[in-house]
């Protein structure tokens, strides 16, 4: 069994790398985009706020699986201009769009929790809107949203397995291939263990971040 | 000299300030007193540029200015809010130096030097590295004063500076305000405490609720 494990481990690990790549780039892009979208949504410029509300509504109201299939299999069949993505790009595109919407909704709650006195305090000191957002508001919002962001981050680890459907070689696919080829359950157990490790690490990192932000109340 | 001319402000059709005019001499202390709901805070917010009056003029040394316009970096008005509005995620030092660095483009070192001497004058030097949640009400208020002063405003406004403090601290703020007068700054103090007002002010403006 140990021998078999060491035989399939390389393919599982290369699947893990794909899973981590999707995880990492989705976070790197979606977190800042989520902040921008939630700011845009509360913009006084109504068309912008309507468009972003609509976008969030669609992203949160339809399955991520559908969005993935739509981007990879659907967009190339568009009537006039065919948008064709590589598998990996399609996966990232769909994940970033989807997670940006969820993060935007979380950040909206965070921004709403900031007292208007903070904006006024900054304004009478002469800080501009963007200086206020960057130096005063966002740092406080981050502290507020960490627990909810944490839940989404752990969901993302697991959601990344959905790329299976567009044939991307992630961790789940690596395990499933080995399992059906060798007619054994072990690869799937190993896949489960790797996911557990990944979510454990995420939980731990989040604890550290949360602790870092406990320096003030 | 600061002149307010015919300041009028209404909310949803209810007039709160009606054609209010007042002159404030340089280096003097004006108290604004009146019952709750009279419009004291509203007037202060107009002076601070947080609300816009429906009509009226602000004139400083003969020149009209718009308190709500924050395009020029020169600070005319500083504000000490009733609940201070300190930035909870920043230390006392960072609260005081943030705007001088970001807005006046001072370098960090000279901003800190200025801040240190301000904190010292307000007996806060041992609290520079603490966060607002670690301070008492009176200390928070003095941080708010230091933060406003670091921008070198010509006029410093206070909304109810005594309301969050116990009586012994009330006299302490009074002292701070009188000390600051010696530095040449003009101060406007909103309060509903007539005794406090008469102790500190050169001039008292009474506002009364307007009956419809
Ligand atoms: N943003 C607003 N929208 C509508 N009405 C307002 C607003 N701000 C103040 N008012 C009204 O204006 C009136 C004056 O309020 P203001 O806060 O200026 O009173 P105040 O003299 O400071 O009273 P207090 O001593 O209780 O602080 C009140 O009737 C209040 O309801
Ligand atoms: Mg008031």
Task: Tag the structure with descriptive keywords.
A: 217 residues, mainly alpha, 8 helices, 79% helix, 0% strand, flat, B: 212 residues, Rossmann fold, five-stranded parallel sheet, four-stranded antiparallel sheet, 25% strand, globular, binds adenosine-5'-triphosphate
Give a structural overview.
The complex is a heterodimer of chains A (217) and B (212). In chain A, helix 1 (2-41) packs across helix 8 (186-212), helix 4 packs across helix 6 and helix 6 (129-159) packs antiparallel against helix 8 (186-212). The longest helix of chain A is centred in the N-terminal third of the chain and has 40 residues, at 2-41. In chain A, 32% of the residues are buried. Chain A has 217 residues and is mainly α. Chain A has eight helices and no strands. Chain A has a single domain, classed as MetI-like fold, CATH 1.10.3720.10. Chain B has a five-stranded parallel sheet, sandwiched between helices. In chain B, strands 2-1-4-5 form a four-stranded antiparallel sheet, with helices on one face. Chain B has 212 residues and is of the alpha/beta class. Chain A binds chain B through residues 115, 117-118, 120-128, 131, 135-136, 139-140, 143, 215-217, and chain B through 48-50, 70, 73, 75, 77-79, 81, 83, 85-89, 98-99, 102-103, 131-133, 147-148, 151. Bound molecules: adenosine-5'-triphosphate and magnesium ion (MG). Magnesium ion (MG) is lined by residues 40-41 of chain B.
């Amino acid at each position: 069994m140990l021998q078999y494990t060491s035989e399939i481990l390389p393919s599982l690990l290369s699947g893990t790398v794909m899973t981590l790549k999707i995880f990492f780039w989705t976070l790197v892009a979606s977190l800042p985009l989520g902040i921008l979208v939630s700011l845009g949504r509360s913009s006084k410029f109504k068309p912008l706020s309507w468009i972003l509300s609509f976008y969030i509504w669609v992203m949160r109201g339809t399955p991520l699986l559908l969005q993935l299939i739509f981007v990879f299999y659907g967009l190339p069949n568009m009537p006039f201009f065919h948008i064709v993505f590589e598998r990996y790009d399609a996966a990232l595109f769909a994940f970033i769009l989807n997670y940006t919407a969820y993060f935007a909704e979380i950040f909206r709650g965070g921004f709403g929790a900031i007292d208007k006195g903070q904006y006024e305090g900054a304004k009478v000191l002469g800080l501009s809107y963007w200086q206020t957002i960057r130096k005063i508001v966002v740092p406080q919002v981050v502290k507020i949203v960490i627990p909810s962001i944490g839940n989404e981050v752990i969901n993302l680890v697991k959601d990344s397995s959905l790329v299976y459907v567009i044939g991307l070689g992630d961790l789940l696919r690596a395990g499933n291939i080995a399992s059906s080829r060798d007619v054994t359950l072990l690869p799937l157990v190993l896949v489960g263990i790797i996911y557990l490790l990944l979510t454990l690490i995420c939980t731990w990192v989040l604890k550290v971040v949360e602790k870092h932000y406990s320096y003030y109340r | 000299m600061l002149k307010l001319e015919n300041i009028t402000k209404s909310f949803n059709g209810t007039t709160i300030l009606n054609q209010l005019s007042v002159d404030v001499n340089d280096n003097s202390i004006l108290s604004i007193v009146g019952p709750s709901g009279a419009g004291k805070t509203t007037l202060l917010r107009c002076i601070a540029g947080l609300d816009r009056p429906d009509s009226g003029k602000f004139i400083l040394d003969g020149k009209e200015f718009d308190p709500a316009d924050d395009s020029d970096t020169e600070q005319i008005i500083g504000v000490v809010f009733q609940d201070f509005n300190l930035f909870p995620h920043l230390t006392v030092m960072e609260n005081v130096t943030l705007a001088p660095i970001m807005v006046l483009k001072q370098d960090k070192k000279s901003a800190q030097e200025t801040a240190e001497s301000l904190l010292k004058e307000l007996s806060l030097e041992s609290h520079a590295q603490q966060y607002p949640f670690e301070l008492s009400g009176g200390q928070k208020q003095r941080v708010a004063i230091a933060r406003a002063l670091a921008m070198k405003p010509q006029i410093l406004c206070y909304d109810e500076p005594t309301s969050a403090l116990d009586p012994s601290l009330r006299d302490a703020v009074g002292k701070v305000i009188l000390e600051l007068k010696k530095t040449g700054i003009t101060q406007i103090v909103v309060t509903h405490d007539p005794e406090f007002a008469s102790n500190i002010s050169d001039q008292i403006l009474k506002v009364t609720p307007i009956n419809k």
